[in-house]
């Protein structure tokens, strides 16, 4: 066994790399050192050489898995992060999603640089730096555009202009194909699919990419908002930490180092286990100034003096916090036990500490895994290696371009007295993006989005789960509403007025037989709720009008927070009378008996207002009346 510690107090002055990256290099050194050693294979009953698949790196947190995976692969060590809860954090998905983002909007600097740096466009770090140095003003996107037109290096200029031509081509393709087809063509025509299949654990990576295509198909089947909507959905899933799970194909035969959480490793064993991040502080969660809860101690509330304006923790509250802290430490000890017992032959422990000189070999502490194990390693005679981050040798640049010219750059910074250079660096670091407010406004909205924004400014967004992430248990309210709209669109209003329920039920059966409605969908259509529309005075007016339209699509230019944006929507139904237009919007929302009509109107008034504005602009006529038809209560509610 061995413990390797990175002592941050010994960090050299010119060392500007982060602790996580330093520890990643230590892990890479340990892997290189162990591969090729002789190990006894219990299953075979013989000695053999240790290979990559015999080594696992365990992490306390899944957040560090993708970064370590990327580092090891770039260092020439095949590695795969078994991060089933972090599908969108896998490297191949991150790069491809960034590619989709710049096809949707090329002006996004971070995704643009990510894709330029990837194999898709193959720009090196020095090429990216040259573009920025030559054109310092504005965004990186604008610098790249200018370089493609005015750049000094003809080869780089051609490469940059070719990239923009390629992006222009895919932007054009996006408008002519389905979302699923767009993703498939991007994967195969750019060579990205073949590239990923050749990487370590290639089968897993291409399975992840195939799963993304399936997700796109599922999304498109339920939504019609295209690439932008799909990207927004992905971002929302990441932001809300919604797990989707990776495609599971990586097996024991893949000769690659596995990286996984300690929790994920339960029940598994490996010849060599590297426990990473052992220096991370264990910080029990306090309750702050709120109530403290414990299953045995009950509820501890703070003492509050409103008159004098202060509050303090009570004795019970402090006792509960101490008890919970002890329980959290006990849980960490159990996790450490799981990690240490995964190793068959050798356990390696790595971590960063503030000052290795303060570690007490006689008194095991509980501040970190290192703190808990240090005295045991000392007493057991195991190796303890102390390293500062300055003596780490970075991976050979033959494998990747990330560390190019690190040594010369360190020397340049150490010996530089160029004030102009310092001024430029300060200017770059102090730059404030002048159009921050524009980032809050999208280029296109649906009417429903704007209405929700007016009604739910302070509410947390709840995502609707797609079919691929949950078991289907009937139609939800929104899906039933879509089905009801579909039936209303297919009905002949004059015939419905005369034929009543018989005609409506006959039409529903006809739609089911023709495949317009599924068997399941037809079961949710309540013909009596639709018949209520035609039994009313308003329904008769609508049915007998000389001109009417259903499902009228529109696009409206609106100014939102000082920015011009496009609003897109569909008007359910309107009809014309001599003195103006009458607009009707169908609602399948459940409304409790005690709900006042004014409350319902206030919920949808912004949406109806946008419909009215769009309809008046399109028809050049005044909307004299607007109504909501509530399917469940079979009544009309006047909005205007």
TrEMBL record:
Q: Which GO terms describe its cellular component?
A: cytosol; DNA helicase complex
UniProt keywords, alphabetically: ATP-binding, DNA damage, DNA repair, DNA-binding, Exonuclease, Helicase, Hydrolase, Nuclease, Nucleotide-binding
Q: Does the keyword Ubl conjugation apply?
A: no
Keyword Transcription regulation in annotation: no
- Domain UvrD-like helicase C-terminal span(s) in chain numbering: 1-267
Which terms under GO biological process does the entry name? recombinational repair
Q: Name one GO molecular function term.
A: DNA binding
Pfam families linked to this entry: PDDEXK_1, UvrD_C
This protein's source sits in the domain of life called Bacteria
Its protein name is PD-(D/E)XK nuclease family protein
């Amino acid at each position: 066994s061995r413990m390797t510690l990175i002592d941050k107090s010994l960090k050299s002055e010119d060392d500007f790399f982060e602790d996580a990256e330093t520890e990643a290099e230590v892990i890479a050194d340990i892997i290189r050192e162990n591969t090729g050693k002789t190990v006894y294979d219990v299953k075979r009953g013989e000695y053999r050489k240790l290979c990559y698949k015999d080594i696992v790196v365990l992490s306390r947190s899944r957040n560090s898995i993708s970064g370590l995976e990327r580092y090891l692969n770039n260092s020439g060590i095949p590695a795969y992060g078994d991060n089933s809860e972090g599908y969108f954090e896998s490297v191949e998905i991150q790069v491809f999603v960034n590619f989709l983002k710049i096809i949707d909007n090329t002006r996004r600097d971070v995704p643009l640089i990510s894709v330029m740096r990837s194999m898709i466009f193959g720009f090196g770090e020095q090429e990216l730096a040259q573009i920025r140095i030559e054109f310092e003003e504005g965004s990186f996107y604008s610098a790249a555009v200018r370089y493609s037109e005015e750049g000094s290096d003809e080869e780089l200029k051609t490469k940059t202009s070719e990239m923009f031509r390629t992006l222009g081509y895919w932007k054009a393709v996006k408008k002519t194909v389905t979302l699923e087809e767009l993703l498939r063509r991007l994967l195969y025509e750019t060579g990205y699919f073949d590239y990923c299949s050749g990487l370590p654990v290639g089968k897993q990576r291409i399975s992840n990419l195939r799963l993304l295509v399936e997700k796109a198909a599922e999304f498109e089947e339920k939504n019609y908002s295209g690439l932008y909507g799909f990207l927004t959905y992905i971002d929302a899933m990441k932001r809300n930490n919604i797990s989707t799970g990776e495609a599971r194909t990586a097996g024991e035969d893949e000769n690659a180092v596995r990286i996984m959480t300690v929790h994920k490793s339960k029940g598994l064993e490996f010849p060599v286990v590297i426990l990473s991040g052992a220096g991370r502080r264990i910080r029990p969660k306090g309750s702050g100034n709120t109530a403290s809860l414990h299953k045995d101690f009950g509820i501890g509330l703070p003492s509050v003096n409103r008159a004098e304006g202060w509050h303090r923790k009570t004795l019970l509250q402090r006792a509960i916090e101490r008890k919970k802290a002890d329980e959290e430490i006990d849980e960490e000890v159990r996790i450490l036990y799981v990690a240490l017992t995964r190793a068959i032959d050798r356990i390696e422990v790595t971590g960063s500490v503030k000052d290795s000189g303060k570690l007490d070999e006689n008194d095991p502490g509980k501040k970190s895994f290192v703190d808990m194990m240090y005295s045991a390693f000392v007493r057991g005679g195991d190796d303890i290696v102390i390293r500062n981050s300055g003596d780490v040798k970075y991976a050979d640049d033959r494998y990747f371009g990330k560390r190019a010219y690190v040594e010369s750059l360190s020397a340049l910074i150490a010996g530089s007295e160029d004030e102009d250079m310092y001024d430029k660096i300060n200017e770059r670091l102090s730059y404030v993006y002048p159009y921050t407010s524009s980032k809050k406004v999208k280029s296109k909205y649906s009417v429903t989005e704007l209405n929700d924004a007016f009604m739910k400014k302070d509410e947390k967004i709840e995502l609707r789960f797609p079919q691929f992430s949950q078991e289907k248990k009937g139609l939800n309210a929104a899906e039933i509403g879509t089905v009801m709209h579909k039936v209303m669109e297919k009905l002949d209003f004059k015939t419905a007025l005369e034929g009543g329920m018989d005609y409506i039920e006959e039409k529903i059966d006809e739609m089911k037989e023709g495949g317009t409605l599924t068997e399941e969908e037809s079961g949710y259509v309540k013909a009596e709720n639709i018949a209520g529309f035609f039994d009313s005075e308003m329904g008769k007016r609508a049915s007998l009008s000389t001109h009417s339209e259903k499902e009228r699509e529109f696009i409206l230019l609106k100014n939102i927070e000082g920015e011009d944006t496009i609003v897109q929507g569909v008007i359910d139904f309107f009809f014309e009378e001599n003195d103006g237009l009458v607009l009707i919007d169908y609602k399948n929302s459940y409304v409790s008996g005690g709900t006042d009509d004014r409350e319902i109107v206030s919920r949808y008034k912004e949406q109806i207002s946008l419909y009215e504005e769009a309809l008046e602009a399109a028809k050049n006529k005044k909307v004299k009346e607007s109504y909501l038809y509530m399917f469940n209560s079979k009544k009309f509610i006047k909005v205007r």
